[in-house]
Amino acid sequence: GVANDRAGTPNVASAVLNFQVDTIPPRIESVVRKTPAGISTGATSVSFEVTFSEAMSEPVRPTRFQAVMGGDVTSASVTGVSGGGAVWTVFVNTGTGEGSLGILYFTDDPVETHSLKDLAGNPLTNSTPQGANESYMIDRSAPTPVITLAAGQAKRTKVSPVRFQVAFDEDIPLFTGNDIDFTGRTVGGTLSATVTGGLSVYQ
């Protein structure tokens, strides 16, 4: 229908207004390692990327998260949060000691007096990530190698190459010939190393 003025002139059609009804509460989709990307680290600070199911209506503050420590890790703490919308980065000081380190979202924030809400005002009430919930393994100890002659390698030889085995007390993601130091050698000539193997044992 139309509305007419006193002269009988019909109204001009107005723009169509659409509304979206949202009664679904937001949730945490995932918590994943961001910096560094690998699971094992000795860094003093790490960060996690937290993805919500939809944009939040206000900044996500550091007090909404808590560091979750395992093993001998102590004194780790959340130091900051950055981002916007549905994706936020949580920064964590790794404290002291070695072990696991993750983060937990507080649905009942000890500082904020209200729940975090989506743009429609629905509160986030479930703090369990629906997908990935990653953590770090804090490792501050330097790896220790044990160097022996490789199997089948004679102790006295004039044949090159000479094969050694290097066994570490933990997995080493990357070990190459460039990591070999020939300082203290008693043979002449130019020496070089080729490395094979992986994880904790190399030749």
Overview features:
0% helix; 31% strand; 203 residues; mainly beta; 4-stranded mixed beta sheet
Structure in words:
By secondary structure, the protein is mainly β. The protein has no helices and twelve strands. The protein has strands at residues 28-35, 40-41, 45-52, 65-69, 77-84, 87-93, 99-105, 136-138, 145-149, 164-168, 197-198, 201-202.
Uncertain stretches of 5 or more adjacent residues: none
Q: Count the strands?
A: 12
Cα-to-Cα separation, first versus last residue? 86 Å
Order of helices and strands: EEEEEEEEEEEE
Provide a quick synopsis of the model:
By secondary structure, this protein is mainly β.
